[in-house]
Amino acid sequence: MHPMLNIAIKAARRAGTIVNRASLDLERISVARKGPRDYVTDVDRAAEESIVETLQAAYPDHAVLGEEFGLQGPEQAEFQWIIDPLDGTTNFIHGLPNYAVSIALTQRGQVTQAVVYDPSRNELFTASRGSGTFLNDRRVRVSSRTRYAEALLGAHWPRSGDADAGGGRFRQMTENCSGVRRMGSTVLDLAYVATGRLDGFCGLKLKPWDVAAGSLLIQEAGGLVADLDGEQGWMDSGNVLAGSPKIFTQMLAALQPKQD
């Protein structure tokens, strides 16, 4: 296992311990609102501080970009960690056990290491570029399903009405598959695509910490990741399409404007 991945796992597990401990007494958690349907807790902050401390102790020259505290370290660093200490905060504060810690490492802008840790289920998803994707100690692949009518998709739309934005651009994609799940944790949705639990994913207006780790998990598991036009601008636009090759191709086709 790559030494940088080992450090990321250590950081993710430390953060997961903080999250699990807090989940035992949700009434004592301090919750603040960052925006409509966007919350942050003292648990998010404590978990991020723990991750940054672990990463910077091992790699003091690396930069860290986190959801709660922004960029720490050299802005032009060759190595940058991208972290989400608790993706699925709304689920967490409601006691719904569908949330995760996400840590990715980029080198010159390319994601090279990825960890997504689900502390409530003790599931650890990891990937190193060129070495495959693993769930705990078992190598995993994207789903082998080929028929779009049987595909189960994950989704992240900030508002339910976004599914019909742009003259119903998403309607065909969602209505022709087996079902769409909005489970409240993008990093877990992407990890589930990598393991074949979901066949595809479509997300809008996402941030780098939502997608960095999951993108490598999917790619190393044999899947595809792109923006809604099939290009590689998803990290900048925040609009992400991902899935197994056969399902990804059909999702992408369903999103393209119809020719008269």
Overview of the molecule:
- Keywords: Hydrolase, Magnesium, Metal-binding.
- Mean pLDDT is 89; it is low at 160-167.
- The chain has helices at residues 3-23, 42-58, 89-93, 165-168, 171-175, 186-195, 208-220, 234-237, 245-255; strands spanning 31-35, 38-41, 63-66, 70-72, 79-87, 100-107, 110-118, 123-128, 133-135, 138-140, 152-156, 179-181, 200-203, 224-226, 240-243.
- The protein folds into two domains: 3-139, Fructose-1,6-Bisphosphatase, subunit A, domain 1 (Fructose-1,6-Bisphosphatase, Chain A, domain 1, 2-Layer Sandwich); 148-255, D-Maltodextrin-Binding Protein, domain 2 (3-Layer(aba) Sandwich), CATH 3.40.190.80.
- Helices cover 35% and strands 28% of the residues.
- The chain has an eight-stranded mixed sheet with strand order 4-3-5-6-7-8-9-10, with helices on both faces. The protein has a five-stranded mixed sheet with strand order 12-11-13-15-14, with helices on both faces. A two-stranded antiparallel ribbon has the order 1-2.
- The chain is an alpha+beta fold and 260 residues long.
- The relative contact order is 0.13.
- α1 runs antiparallel to α2 and α6 (186-195) packs parallel to α7 (208-220).
- The chain contains nine helices and 15 strands.
CATH topology term of the largest domain = Fructose-1,6-Bisphosphatase, Chain A, domain 1
CATH architecture of the largest domain: 2-Layer Sandwich
- Determine the number of helices (DSSP H or I, runs of at least 4 residues): 9
The value of Rg in angstroms is: 18 Å
Global morphology: globular
Mean pLDDT equals: 89
The secondary-structure class comes to: alpha+beta
| Estimated share of beta-strand residues | 25-35%
By CATH, the superfamily of the largest domain comes out as Fructose-1,6-Bisphosphatase, subunit A, domain 1
Straight-line N-to-C gap: 53 Å
Family: Belongs to the inositol monophosphatase superfamily.
Cofactor: Mg(2+)
GO molecular function, one term: inositol monophosphate 1-phosphatase activity
Organism: Bordetella genomosp. 4
